[in-house]
Design brief:
- By secondary structure, the protein is α/β, with parallel strands linked by helices.
- The chain contains twelve helices and eight strands.
- The radius of gyration is 18 Å and the shape is globular.
- The mean pLDDT is 94.
């Protein structure tokens, strides 16, 4: 169990987007710096969405301007459409992650597009990249498929539906596809089934998993994903977050809780657990409530942080 597991830190974006507190860009940039000091190598730093709908993510350009490039670090910007992509590529983001939905209901609510419209939107972005002038630098591209294990508007999402969409995006040349349990409805056995189906649909793509802990199954689902061969998972410092368009959804699995579980089992994450716990407590002060992670309350191994 010594294989490395990459944890993509999503606290500055998915963690903060559902909090009542609206933090200034300078504070959000500081959160990114603290997380990178704690070991984050890939971090979802910003979201290029309209501030009318998600005011917590306003000023993405300012956040990126406060984060000079650093070797060995990759900052990700989330986009929902071509307008967001246009904004993202004017900044220093290293990666652009396009969020799409596994259901029409969530896609229409989250970004005003059904599944067919989302596919066309991603195809248009991919085509633009292919038609770019030689020498034009472009951030790498990934896709996150939301509501894989359940939709707040349509209920159950079938294995075949997920596999069909994963295969379609892989056929466009998307090299990394994240499967997201946006409302925290999944269970470990369903995780195994959908990971296996997604791998068959896109054998050459990297699969990434994104779990919320709404129903207290997040770490169990992460374990199931790792047992199924997944090496890349998302997590949010402190377990903060949720989705403004998914009623009842709570935060992501906490980075420090996931790191504790993996490191105790012998996996290598590259994170400093004590620094993560300190950062969780710091961001809890900034948002005006204690971060809900278990390690924020209990600390690490007895006698540790």
């Amino acid at each position: 169990m010594s294989r490395p597991i990459q944890i993509v830190e999503v606290g500055p974006r998915d963690g903060l987007q559902n909090e009542k507190a609206v933090l200034e860009p300078a504070v959000r940039a500081e959160l990114t710096r603290r997380l990178e000091a704690a070991g984050a190598r890939r971090i979802e730093a910003v979201s290029f969405v309209h501030p009318k709908y998600v005011p917590q993510m306003a000023g993405a350009e300012e956040v990126m301007a406060a984060l000079p490039p650093e070797p060995g670090r990759s900052r990700i910007g989330l986009v929902l459409n071509g307008r967001g992509y246009d904004r993202a590529i004017t900044t220093a983001v290293d990666e652009v992650n396009i969020s799409v939905a596994a259901t029409d209901g969530f896609g229409l609510k989250n970004q005003g597009l059904d599944r067919a419209g989302q596919r066309a939107m991603v195809e248009a972005i991919v085509a633009r990249r292919h038609n770019a002038e030689p020498g034009d630098a472009a951030p790498s591209l990934s896709v996150t498929l939301s509501c894989v294990w359940g939709c707040p508007f349509e209920g159950e999402v079938s294995v075949d539906q997920v596999a069909d969409m994963v295969g379609a995006y892989a056929a466009m040349g998307i090299r990394e596809i994240a499967l997201a349990d946006t409302i925290g409805a999944g269970d470990p056995w369903a995780v195994t089934k959908k990971v296996e189906a997604a791998r068959k649909a896109a054998p050459d793509a990297t699969l990434r998993l994104h779990f919320h802990d709404t129903r207290n199954t997040g770490l169990a689902n992460a374990h199931a994903g790792i047992e199924a061969g997944i090496d890349v998972l998302d997590a949010s410092v402190g377990g903060i977050g949720g989705c403004p368009f998914a009623p009842g959804a709570t935060g992501n699995i906490a980075t420090e809780d996931l790191v504790y579980m993996l490191e105790r089992a012998g996996f290598d994450t590259g994170y400093d657990l004590e620094a993560l716990i300190e950062t969780a407590r710091w961001i809890g002060e900034k948002i005006g409530r204690p971060a809900p992670s278990a390690l924020n309350r209990a600390g690490g191994w007895p006698g540790g942080a």
